[in-house]
Amino acid sequence: MAGVQVSNLSRSFGAHKALDDVSIDFADGGFYALLGPSGSGKTTLLRQIAGFDFPDSGRIAIGGESVERVPVEKRRIGMVFQNYALFPNMSVADNVAFGLSVRGEAKATIASEVQRALDLVQLGQLGGRRPHQLSGGQRQRVALARAIVTKPRVLLLDEPLGALDKALRIDMQIELKRIQREIGITTIFVTHDQEEALTMSDRIGILRGGRLVQEGPPEDIYDRPKSEFAATFLGDANILRGETTGTGIRLADGTAIAAKAGASFAAGTKASCAVRPERIRIAADSGSPDHLNGNVLKGQVSKRIFAGNNSTYFVDRDGQTIKVIVQNTGMEKLAEGQEVVLRWSPESTVLIAGN
Amino acid sequence: MAGQVATGSRSGLRSALPLLLPAYLWLTVAIFLPLSAMVFFSFMTELPLSGKAWFFTLENYATFFSQGLYLTLLLASLRLGLEVTLWCVVIGYPAAYVLAKVLKGRSREAIFLLVILPFWSNGLVRIFSWAMVLREGGILDTALNAVLPFKINIDLMYSYPAVIIGLVHSYVPYMVLTCYLTLQAIDDSLIEAGRSLGASRLQMLKRVIIPLSMPGLVAGAALIFVPVVGSFMEPRILGGRTGTFYGTVIEDQFVAVFNWPLGAALSFILLAVVLVILALASPVLKRAA
Amino acid sequence: MATTRILEWLGRLYIWLLLAFLYLPIIIMALMSFNVSPFYQLPFEWTTEWYAWLRQNDQLISATWNSVKIAMITTIICTALGTAASLALYRYEFRGKKFLQALLFPPIAIPWLITGTAMLIFFFGVGIGRGLFAILLGHVALALPYVIVVVSARLQTFAPELEEAARSLGANQWQVTRRVTLPWIMPGVIAGGLFAFAVSFDQFVVSYFLSTPGQTTLPVEIYAAIRKGFTPEINAVSTIIIVVSMALMLLTARFFKFGGEK
Asked: Residue B115 falls within a domain, yes or no?
């Protein structure tokens, strides 16, 4: 096992900057998700770490050893591909054995290692099958077994769950996490699915346009996004724009919004506040503001979407729509068109630089 | 990004070269250099190897243009190419249509294979086989006389129609193949949609199916026309004395008259004609590919 | 609908007429090779005499051997060089790749009469001259583009991630090729090899210009014999050739979809 350090990595394809000065420290044994929209450079970064492509500048170190000029077959990595890339001409066992066999391991060693890997992914009985005889989830497990049987220093996963349906994907998330913990391998996981990134990883790196936007544990990024992009890409967020007051912002109509999270800015510059929809309380009465829910806005319900355990209200206010998610307790039901009051706490309000 | 290539284009060539070199070297030695040498030769008076003195000349080309014979024969070959191509369209296109749109499943695959199988078998032997059918006292003659109450004499052998029949037989599978490929790519629901809009079968054929299968027609036509213009074996066997065409004259220069420089010039003129035709067809061919 | 039914029926009938047009001459030629009369006179009387005659025709036998040998060597060379070139064209991006791919079409599209006479001139000019070696040089060049086209078509169905997966597991370029890529493209390689054999074995025009009286191939011998006059012996040897070349193509069809489906 080994950690991976990426420093000042850049890579261009023609005029297109696929990676622009990216530095990330992937801790030994950690589970790291690279999250971003398509074209953000997350796959390029993964392929750089794997060794399929070489950087224009910057360093990549695996276990402290510089590898940026080492070809993929010498890097001792394990990789799971988006569509699994199982060799169709080989049985499941031969697929898993491939990495050991090209290394010239003894037959007996290979057989026992393969069996161990297949047992680990709970496919011990299916070694004789061909890839096309397996279900999507089973193929996924074979691909994983094949990647880890060689005891690689780092496991790279390129949207490995993208091809599975939702129920199976959740099963596989749990399974993948279990196996990763069991063998304790440094894992780097590329995904565009924010929920997957949140539930599985110890740390998340958000990429956009080839640059690292923000990086840290999932809760940190979720609670303290540093940009509007990070706030809206990871989870849902209402963005209120105005001028900074030092402890919050003042909206165009003069309403002050207090913020106790995020950076602080010199008063008078443009800034935004981000508020998660589930942190806002919605009520029909005007009531009096309490110290916990110091921020107050009035608006009108324009739409309500019922989704079983929760409902989403869209509240119009001064030309902006604010999204509020409430648990369905059966207590209160607000009608479309009704005047409402929104309240939330300054602690739930993140001050970020305006764009 | 998944679509990006793993290595830069410079190192790509370095890795590709050892794999490419043997094949392309061979093609250069056996195809591209010979074609260039032919052009060079066509401007000479004698073979350099014959020991006689030689010098550069335009005489071989002058011969082509001054003696009406060669031009006449080239035109005759072009006409032959045109007629054979037309027959192949008339016979091959409906067959391709039936294969692509009427027949289904395994029987379609089997019949398609049967149609194009002869194309990949020995051309010389297939031309020879027509001699068995077309000659006086041959099968056609005998069969017709057995059925008909009056005596007729079928002797198509050594005639222009015999050459046409032999060449159409040789090349019609090509037309079926190229048209079939474009026709089967036309979605059946397109035809159903057209019919549902009130178009008759004939209107659909004229306004949708034929335009959409045009690339296949043009590809087939080019691939048939070009070799037919350069044919010499077929006219020799089936045409006899009437079978003198541009191709047979070139053959004569090399195997009978031994005027290689003139033969080279005649070949080069043919090559130029062929290249012009392929260039004219290439926009449509590119769309087909 | 009744009209649809009738049209379908007419379509089928038409296809069978076309098949008759394509196959009847060949069948008649084959029958005549088993007919007693040397002048193709009917009624038909069965004999295998003409095939027995073939066995005493040393010239034909040696030409047959030449044809088989040249076709086999052509197959081996074309398969090796063609597969290597296809892999390079599939794997790597470089300047001029499109041009190299376009270069494959002149050998297929230019009439063999032109290619054959050009080879004759050039081989004479550089001292290779005519004969079996020259014929082999020519056959390989003619068949090579077909092999590259067929193998490349098969490679189009190959997923590049498979090579990447193999490399990520530590396989070097040669291991990747031998254990992952080649097994996948093998049907294409076999089809390409059969194509090469057929192109060479059936090749007449180029062989014709490059052969000498002693060093010749079967189709050239047959052409010479036809021009002297038709004999049942020619029917016999032609029947053998057509059976062999059709069988080859049926075999090829097992590995390569001519129709481009699937």
From this structure: yes
The 10s digit of each residue's pLDDT in A138-192 is: 999 999 999 999 999 999 999 888 778 888 888 888 889 999 999 999 999 999 8
Predicted local confidence at residue B3, as pLDDT: 37
Q: Which chain A residues contact residue C165 at CB under 8 A?
A: 79, 81, 85-87, 146
- Who's near B143: CB < 8 A, 6+ residues apart? none
- pLDDT tens digits, A324-347: 999 888 766 788 888 898 989 888
CA–CA separation, B54 vs A22, rounded Å? 71
What is the distance in angstroms between the Cα of C8 and the nearest Cα belonging to chain B? 6
Domains of chain A: 4-223 (3.40.50.300), 236-353 (2.40.50.100)
Please give the tally of structural domains in chain B: 1
On whether residue B282 sits in a domain, the answer given is: yes
| The CA-based dihedral angle spanning residues A188, A190, A193, A199, taken in that order and rounded to the nearest 10 degrees | 0
Angle at B160 between CA B158 and CA B165, to 5 degrees: 90
Q: Distance between CA atoms of B272 and B270, rounded to whole angstroms?
A: 5
Identify which of A214, A144, A211 has the alpha carbon closest to the alpha carbon of residue A173. A144
CA distance C259 to B100: 10
Report the pLDDT value the prediction gives residue A291, as an integer from 0 to 100: 60
Closest residue in chain A to residue B6, using alpha carbons only:
A53
Q: How far is B3 from chain A (nearest CA, A)?
A: 10
Kindly report the number of other CB atoms within 10 A of residue C93's CB atom: 16
Chain A residues inside the 8 Å CB shell of B6:
47, 52-53
Beta carbons of C190 and C182 less than 8 angstroms apart = no
* pLDDT number for residue B4: 38
pLDDT at A89: 86
Summarised one tens digit per residue, pLDDT across range B165-175 is 999 999 999 89
Rounded Cα distance, B63 and B15, in Å: 50
Strand A154-158's sheet: what is its strand order? Answer: A77-80, A154-158, A186-191, A31-35, A203-208, A211-216
Q: What number is the ipTM of this complex?
A: 0.89
Q: Which residues of B touch C124 (CB under 8 A)?
A: 47, 49
Q: Where are the domains of chain C?
A: 57-255
User: Does residue B243 lie in a domain region?
Assistant: yes
Domain C57-255 has CATH 1.10.3720.10: yes
First to last CA, chain A: 41
What is the arithmetic mean of pLDDT over C42-63?
84
Q: Buried b / exposed e across B64-73, counting CB within 10 Å, b at 16+?
A: beeeeebeeb
Q: Does residue B33 lie in a domain region?
A: no
Statement: the pTM of the whole predicted model exceeds 0.90: no
Q: What tokens appear for C92 in the block?
A: 């790597």
Q: Which residues of C touch B30 (CB under 8 A)?
A: 119, 137-138, 140-141
Kindly report the nearest CA distance between residue C9 and chain B, in angstroms.
9
Residue segments in chain B with a per-residue pLDDT below the cut of 70: 1-11, 48-53, 136-138, 154, 285-289
The rounded Cα A186 to chain-centroid distance in angstroms is: 16
- Which range is least confidently modeled, A250-264, C124-138, C173-187? A250-264
Respond yes or no on whether the N-terminal peptide bond of residue B161 is cis (omega within 30° of 0): no
Determine how β-strand A154-158 pairs with β-strand A186-191: parallel
DSSP per residue over chain C, as a string?
Answer: -HHHHHHHHHHHHHHHHHHHHHHHHHHHHHHHTTBS-TT-PSSP-B--HHHHHHHH-HHHHHHHHHHHHHHHHHHHHHHHHHHHHHHHHHH---TTHHHHHHTTHHHHHS-HHHHHHHHHHHHHHHT--SSHHHHHHHHHHHHHHHHHHHHHHHHTTS-HHHHHHHHHTT--HHHHIIIIIHHHHHHHHHHHHHHHHHHHHH--HHHHHH--SSS--HHHHHHHHHHH---HHHHHHHHHHHHHHHHHHHHHHHHS-TT---
